[in-house]
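Human: I would love a firmer grasp of how sequence relates to backbone shape in proteins. Could you go through the record with me and say what the backbone is doing? Here is the record:
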Amino acid sequence: MTAPTSAFNEREIQISAPAATKAEILASFNPDDFVTPTGREEDWRFTPVRRVAALFEPLPDSTGVDVVVNAPDSVTVEKVSSDDPRLGDALVPVDRASVLAWDGATEALVVSVPDRTEVAEPIRIDVSGNGFSYGLTQLRVGADSGATFVIDNRGSATRSDNIEVLVGDRSRVTFVSIQDWERDAVHLGRIHTRIGRDASTTQIVATFGGDIVRLVSTVEYDGPGGSADLLGAYFADAGQHLEHRLFADHDETHCRSNVVYKGALQGEHARTVWIGDVLIRANAVGTDTYEINRNLVLSDGARADSVPNLEIETGEIAGAGHASATGRFDDEQLFYLQSRGIPADEARRLVVRGFFTDVLDRIPQEDIRDRLWQVVEDEVSTVIAPAGGQK
């Protein structure tokens, strides 16, 4: 006879057991559907939940940042109430922080590009502030259009936000998200992109600032032929926790996704986490997907976690795979450069710069690209010595 299970044990089992597949993840607009994370849950086991606990309860004030939009006249910019029927067209919260941000936002920003419109200049959204804040943003691009969005986060805020990106049929969208927070900032974010028929999106995430940054980026397809390139770069210093979680949900035929994330870290207790999930559903024949994560450890005391996951429910695909690697400086690269008269410090700088080039050089706005390259230069200049050696 089996002993009865206590209510406490039942609750422990409920919150600890992961979903059988990514298709079974809980998604809801009701905050009561999500328990407060403890760190034992699969989706939160890498996150220092105590340091982000303020965002697991409703914030006392959610207006601690300013949002400034710079867009041409062909683009419609609206501040709307959070119950606008257009919101939530694709994004549904999947964790407690996300649903509280949705529920607590007093207004939303909606930026719309009409059908058959090419927007030549990047649409820039600058977020800055020092208080508590929720964010709710929807970026809409009509059919047969093209646009670039740049969201630039700066300041010392404690922020939780949701960003919904809707890409119309046959459109091309570049979305850039910059986390250049001050050292004491906390940011939990969700980015969800829905890609229309024969449409394409390039998403570039650059995270260099903040005390804790945890971003969840998800992609779904709304017709065959969709394409997504998801690129990321991050650099963690001592005590920083930078976490990026991606999920590409292939549920349409002949779609592709390509993920390339690169991170560097240095200093005691510097921590980075990358989780890459891809689900190819039974009806998603002809899918082509690949994901890569590379981490460069520049000093002792730093830790990088990298977990690629791939679920395939059909054998009729064009290709699928993943790769992950974490290591120190390549001794052969350093030897090659030093043997040609390049000092050790400069050799390490060149190696790190080459490591990030294929991500940062794809940021379309020159002033932001140059600023982030300067951040990388400043970070590398503080490296005392390569891990395991002396300068």
